[in-house]
Amino acid sequence: MSPIENRFPKFTIERESQRRPLKAKASVRSAVKGQIGGRLVDISEQGCKIELFDGSVKPGHRVIIKLETLEIWVGYVRWIRENVAGVYFERPMHSAIVDHLSKTHPTFEMP
Predict the structure, then answer these.
(1) Taken in order 55, 71, 15, 108, is the CA torsion positive or negative?
(2) Which residues form the PilZ domain (predicted)?
(3) Which class would CATH give 15-104?
(4) Of 42, 44, 87, 108, which residue is 20 to 30 A from 14 by alpha carbon distance?
């Protein structure tokens, strides 16, 4: 292992449930920055990964996420890498909703 690799140890996060890939535009609001906007990249019952249009949130920030006709989901930013954020939901999303979202917003275009 190189000296640089020693300075940046690898870590893994134990997931409570399987992530499902998707591509869905979302309304994202932060109490600190207001309207941010973004696109969901993946989702699980406990959280999601969002590509932010304005990456000005920080870990610990509370965010409100709204997709189409679904109710709002509140969560907290757990991590940020460039313009991508990991969000942990305040309350779990039902697995049927997660399944529906992943099927109606696939990551690829249907012919």
Answers:
(1) negative
(2) 15-93
(3) mainly beta
(4) 108
